[in-house]
Specification:
Structural class of chain C: mainly alpha
CATH superfamily of chain C: MetI-like
Radius of gyration of chain C: 21 Å
Number of domains of chain C: 1
Number of strands of chain B: 0
Chains: A alpha/beta, B mainly alpha, C mainly alpha
Shape of chain C: elongated
Largest interface: B-C, 54 and 51 residues
Radius of gyration of chain B: 22 Å
Distance between the termini of chain C: 45 Å
Oligomer: heterotrimer
Structural class of chain B: mainly alpha
Order of helices and strands of chain C: HHHHHHHHHH
Largest sheet of chain C: none
CATH topology of chain C: MetI-like fold
Helix content of chain C: over 70%
CATH class of chain C: Mainly Alpha
Strand content of chain B: under 5%
């Protein structure tokens, strides 16, 4: 592991308030290259908002966010160019239902990066191949299982060669038997050196794939550490209670 | 038996049919021309207004809503008479077919805007977010991701509304546009026979039954395969 | 600007035309009160017939609906008003309007009811029939209430269309709102009476049009 490398994602003093509710109350978080950081916490703890602030799907109220050294919040930063470098995978997939799997992947390649069709399709096929769905390139989302749809969504983000990928509960909407295929793709990405920030409840996945686990509650990071320590010997009472609840 | 032949003589008089067939056909052509012009301009204007509305400029949107509401609430014949008799008095002279076209296109635009706008609103927020996350801008997302889905949803209601409004081309007869009904009533008063009215009615049915059936087909078959 | 005010918003002329226009409004309301209930009932009949188990009956009902949706109401009206006298029947303007609008309106309402009934799942029929309800009871107590709720925006929207439709009764010289206004226009050579009539239509229909927009959005959500 590269030590002393520049962080890919650097969050300082991040706050987010919706009307009179403060959802994030000062988050500091650094994700180094090739790390997989896993975020757990009860619903309403602000995990999803944290992710959505990273690419400004939600506008942060205060604080700074840097991706590969570039200030995401700066006026001079082209947010669309930034977002291309921050892949995002949603709980509900959000595939475009009117396009084939391949078109879902190539749309941004063609329209944002201006790649010619043949090249976009070559890149798109390679991305679909990485998630094991090259044979479904011509299928529409409606013809795919939930697990397959989520893998296409991962390919869609992957094709743009992002510097970091955000996963917002990627397996929560899936039937239990389809979860494994998506997690395997994520393991594969990790092995390939992708930097990832993952919000999820899949503890077994966290145990064997995460470099660091973060426990959030009420808009703050309560505790963080390597998965072994976090799952077997957390120091905070709130963390213990939450993990005990999950383990049931 | 005698009343039957009188019925045929009154409503299906062969001589009258032969004499007025060309006139009715001329009316058919005029009806088709105006209907086509109304459909194209009205739908495009409605789509343009709906797209304008997505920018959420308060003043512009208020104007659009007022326009849409007025043209949905007023009977088209009121608008036709207002434009046809009103404009010349302030120095604007439009031929009667242009008045009919203008009024019906605006009415269709109002309804179409509302339908397109509802379609755009019905696209889940996640679609916008997913597209924006890949670096697509607002317009790119609208063009490639949102509108294609929205328009698909709007096809059945828009088709039915379009049929209802293009049928109003018959209102043209009131201001002397030479469409089917106008030709038919003229022929009826010249011939003193009801056959031209029957011909006109049949012409309308032949013209519109296919689109009505198409509208029904679209309604049942065009349901979106939801993800 | 002056000319536009003179021609379209001449208060003096509007004031003179007001009594005539109000009597026209009365006629418009009479037509509505006649045609809307008839259309709602006729439409329900169309819809129920189109549910028949006999294919021919079902298709006949649908063909009827489509026929009267294909023919412009003005054509139907003129056919009845100007055509039937040749067959020895002389309907008054009001009767001609009532017949033409009844046929047109009930076919539209019928199509809306049909869509509503189809939107209620087979499971509702099965459940009700399994509790021993007869077919017509299932329809009346279980299916129709849900169907009507599902298509309420369309029913309201079509009712607005019926009110707008009454304006074409002016073509057969039934002295309703638009006819009266147009009469005043032709006497005064000024469009203000029609603007006044338009304003009355707006006052009647704008609130409902707004309501429809809201209902539609609620159903979509």
């Amino acid at each position: 592991m590269t030590t002393g490398a520049l962080p890919i994602l650097e969050i300082r003093g991040l706050r987010k308030r919706f009307h009179d509710v403060e959802v994030l109350r000062g988050i500091d978080l650094v994700v180094l290259p090739q790390q997989l950081v896993f975020v757990i916490g009860p619903s309403g703890s602000g995990k999803s908002t944290l992710l959505r602030c990273c690419n400004r799907l939600e506008e942060p109220s205060a604080g700074s966010i840097r991706v590969a050294g570039v200030d995401v919040m700066a006026r001079s930063t082209d947010i669309n160019a930034m977002r291309r470098q921050i892949g995002m995978v949603f709980q509900s997939f959000n595939l475009y239902p009117h396009m084939t799997a391949l078109r879902n992947v190539t749309l941004a390649l063609a329209k944002v990066l201006g790649k010619p069709r043949a090249e976009a399709e070559r890149i798109g096929m390679a991305a679909l191949d990485r998630v094991g769905l090259a044979d479904k390139a011509r299928s529409y989302p409606g013809e795919l299982s939930g697990g397959q749809q989520q893998r296409v969504a991962i390919a869609r983000a992957l094709a743009l060669e992002p510097k970091v990928m955000l996963f917002d509960e990627p397996t929560s909407a899936l039937d239990p038997e389809l979860v494994g295929s998506v997690l395997n793709v994520m393991r594969e990405l990790k092995r390939g050196g992708m930097t990832m920030l993952v919000v999820s409840h899949e503890m077994r996945f966290a145990r064997d794939a995460a470099d660091r686990v973060i426990f959030m509650d009420h808009g703050v990071i309560v505790e963080e550490g390597p998965p072994q320590q976090m799952f077997s010997a957390p120091s905070e009472a709130r963390t213990r209670a939450f993990i005990a609840e999950l383990a049931r | 038996m005698e009343s039957w032949s009188r019925f045929l003589d009154t409503f299906f008089n062969w001589e009258v049919i032969e004499r007025y067939f060309p006139a009715i056909m001329k009316g058919v052509v005029v009806t088709i021309e105006i209907a086509a012009a109304v459909v194209v301009t009205g739908t495009l204007l409605g789509l343009a207004l709906a797209i304008m509305r997505t920018f959420r400029l308060l003043a512009v949107n208020a104007l659009i809503v007022v326009f849409v509401d007025i043209f949905r609430a007023l009977p088209p014949l009121v608008l036709v008479l207002l434009v046809y008799f009103g404009l010349p008095n302030i120095g604007i002279n439009l031929p009667s077919f242009a008045v009919l076209w203008l009024v019906l296109a605006l009415v269709l635009a109002a309804f179409a805007e509302e339908i397109f706008w509802a379609g755009i609103l019905s696209i889940p927020k996640g679609q916008w977010e997913a597209a924006r996350c890949t670096g697509l801008g607002f317009l790119g997302t609208l063009t490639y991701v949102v509108l294609p889905q929205a328009i698909r949803l709007t096809v059945p209601p828009l088709t039915n509304r379009t049929i209802a409004i293009t049928k109003n081309t018959a209102l043209g007869t009131v201001i002397g546009v030479g469409e089917i009904l106008n030709q038919a009533t003229t022929a009826q008063s010249f011939s003193g026979n009801a056959t031209p009215l029957m011909m006109g009615a049949i012409a309308y049915v032949i013209l519109f039954i296919p689109v009505v059936v198409l509208g029904r087909f679209l309604e049942t078959r065009f349901t979106w395969r939801r993800v | 600007m002056e000319a536009i005010v003179q021609q379209f918003f001449n208060l003096a002329i509007m004031e003179r035309a007001l009594p005539l226009i109000l009597s026209g409004l009365e006629q418009t309301i009479v037509i509505c009160l006649l045609v809307i209930p008839l259309g709602l009932i006729g439409g329900l009949a169309f819809a129920i017939i189109s549910l028949s188990r006999l294919r021919t009956v079902r298709w006949a009902a649908i063909a009827g609906i489509d026929f009267f949706r294909a023919i412009p109401p003005l054509v139907l009206l003129i056919f009845i008003y100007a055509g039937l006298p040749f067959a020895g029947l002389r309907p008054s303007p009001m009767l001609a309007v009532a017949i033409a609008f009844f046929l047109n309106t009930s076919s539209y309402y019928g199509e809306i009811y049909r869509a509503g009934i189809e939107s209620v799942g087979q499971g509702q029929w099965d459940a009700a029939r399994s509790t021993g309800l007869y077919g017509y009871q299932t329809l009346a107590y279980v299916v129709l209430p849900q169907a009507v709720r599902n298509v309420l925006p369309d029913l309201v929207s079509n009712t607005v269309e019926v009110v707008k439709l009454t304006s074409i009764a002016s073509v057969v010289a039934l002295p309703e709102l638009l006819y009266s206004a147009d009469m005043a226009r032709s006497v005064t050579f000024n469009s203000s009476p029609i603007v006044l009539a338009a304003a009355i239509y707006l006052v009647m229909l704008w609130p409902i049009v707004r309501l429809i927009s809201r209902l539609e959005r609620r159903v979509a959500a």
